[in-house]
Design brief:
With 199 residues, the chain is mostly helical. The chain has eight helices and two strands.
């Protein structure tokens, strides 16, 4: 999907998301986005931490660790921001959530495509801790929702800046290292937007 087509598709993505016991997205606007959002579909807790089998992709342990974290971070950004918008978060956080989906959906699509091209499939579900925080977010409204979403974004971006910074130095695969290097300024810009608006 071209990036110019992303925004018209977001309405379909948001309309397809529902909240039951946990908040899951089961429909996506196109096959590429579906591969990203399929990571959030219900599976066992053990599957949340499972790395799919692969045939010697030639990736180092640092490469695999980075791919797992980056896919989890991107998925958490898309799903948590979708939850916030669906729950009608207001003000700065509403605009920030829209920007996070617009940015992190294609970034995560590109990451998953790169990983699969190298013979590696990231875990297909959020970790239990991330899923728990999104479940809690989905139960909120109004000011508690705004504060919780903001706090989650601060946490996610601080963790991402730390891990991506390490990846630039330690990841061995040149394409993954370049992906980390190119994404760092985007993450810093997001974190800078959060800084003056802390609750």
């Amino acid at each position: 999907m071209g990036r110019t087509r992303l925004l018209p598709c977001l309405a379909l993505l948001l309309a397809a998301c529902t909240s039951e016991h946990v908040y899951r997205c089961s429909l996506a606007p196109d096959p590429a986005a579906d591969r990203v959002l399929a990571l959030a579909r219900p599976e066992s807790t053990a599957a949340a931490l499972r790395v799919e089998p692969f045939d010697d992709p030639g990736l180092s342990p640092a490469d695999v660790e980075f791919l797992v974290f980056a896919s989890q971070h991107g998925l958490a950004e898309v799903v948590s921001s979708t939850v916030a918008l669906d729950r009608e978060v207001r003000g700065f956080e509403r605009d920030f959530a829209r920007a996070m989906i617009e940015t992190h959906l294609p970034l995560t699509q590109d990451l998953v495509a790169l990983a699969e091209r190298k013979g590696f499939r990231p875990p297909r579900q959020l970790t239990p801790d991330r899923q728990r925080r999104i479940d809690e977010l989905a139960r909120l409204r109004g000011e508690p929702l705004r504060r919780a979403y903001h706090e989650m974004q601060v946490f996610e971006h601080d963790e991402a800046l730390r891990v991506y910074g390490i990846a630039v130095e330690q990841v061995e695969d040149p394409e993954l290292r370049e992906l980390a290097r190119a994404t760092l300024p985007i993450l810093r810009a997001h974190r800078d937007r959060l800084l003056p608006r802390a609750p």
